[in-house]
Amino acid sequence: MYLAYPVRIDGDAGPAWGYRTVSGALHTALTDAGVEWDPSAPTALHVAPPHIFQPLPGKRNILLTMTEWDQVPPEDVAAVSRADLLLVPSQHSRTAYQWGGVRVPIRVVPLGLGEAHQAPVSPRPARPVRFLWVGQADPRKGPHLVNAAFAAAFLGQAADVELVMKTVPHAGAAAGFTGSTGRVRVIAEAYTDTELAALYRSAHVFLFPSYGEGWGMPVLEAMAAGCIVLAPSHTGLREFFDDRVGVVLPWTRERLTYGAPVSAYAVDPEFLGQACRVLVHAWRSPVTAERARWTALGQAARRRALRFTWAASARRVLEACGILDSDPRPVVETVSRQ
Q: Is 161 inside a domain boundary?
């Protein structure tokens, strides 16, 4: 099996930050699966958002991409339709592209967890109760909802609750974050996978009121850490998150301007705040059984999350491309630059 080393997205990846992470992890997993790298291969596997996808002339172009919305912009439909085969991480993305008019074949390839997120999890101390949000400083990820909910839930209460908001290290990353209650810490510097996994394992509750996800890696990583996850179960999150492994936040349809007007899924910050108060009460409670019930939910989340590995993702990619261990046809992987 042959692949070419990808052209990585360098520097400030902006909206393609997640694709850079996926590209690197998938590249490693494919190497571990026995892939050798040959840029002269006749098939190209691209990991890129639609707007920077550039098919290579004279090759079979396979694109791994995703969409956060139900309505795919016409320009994205046109872009992904230039691929010979489309790979997406969730049923949501496949349905959205099909509804949008994409007629090329589409295969679902779920994404995976890095090794650092599979490390053992230790019990959390009862206090302080740590809430965590992780994501890009982007309204779609709901950081403003988290901040508002936390402030409303714990204003004037004892200082045994805290909120940590971890965002990606690029210009203006921390813009829009505020320490409303004096117990909000914003982390904008770069973390290794090991450091990020440790941050998840230090938190009791993970908050993620997203408006839409192509996949939702932060939720999967928080589940792997055994956090109590509060998130909606829509778009890409439906692939692995439901009320058997977390607290599902209700949502309503909302028209959101995100580059262009889109139909999004909005979470009620009041409900989010109420759920936060319930969980803090549980961790403060002297009733061991009440804490144990939430701990069991976190354990169920971890068991489910650990089913998703990059080794399995790599295997699904090779199968989707028609390349098995006995198949000599080579593949080239490229990641377009912005």
A: yes
Tens digit of each residue's pLDDT (9 = 90 or more) over 186-241: 998 889 999 999 999 999 999 999 999 999 999 999 999 999 999 999 999 999 99
Q: Which of 6, 33, 34 is nearest to 20 (CA)?
A: 6
**105 and 151 together in one domain:** no
Same domain, 20 and 149: no
Residue 5 is predicted with a pLDDT of 46
| Helical residues (DSSP H) of the chain, grouped into ranges | 17-32, 74-80, 91-100, 143-154, 193-202, 217-224, 269-284, 288-305, 310-320
Its domain, for residue 85, covers 14-112+309-334
Same domain? 66 vs 197: no
Answer yes or no: are the C-beta atoms of 56 and 75 closer than 8 Å: no
Report the percent of the chain where pLDDT is more than 70: 85
Please count the residues of the chain.
338
* Cα 78 from Cα 57, distance rounded (Å): 17
Q: Are 286 and 270 in contact (CB under 8 A)?
A: no
Strands 260-267 and 251-258: antiparallel
| Count of domains for the chain | 2
Structure-token match 């790298």, residue found:
37
- In this structure, the answer to whether residues 212 and 79 fall within a common structural domain is no
- 130 and 62 in a single domain? The answer is no
Asked if residue 6 has pLDDT above 80, the reply is: no
Whole-model pTM? 0.90
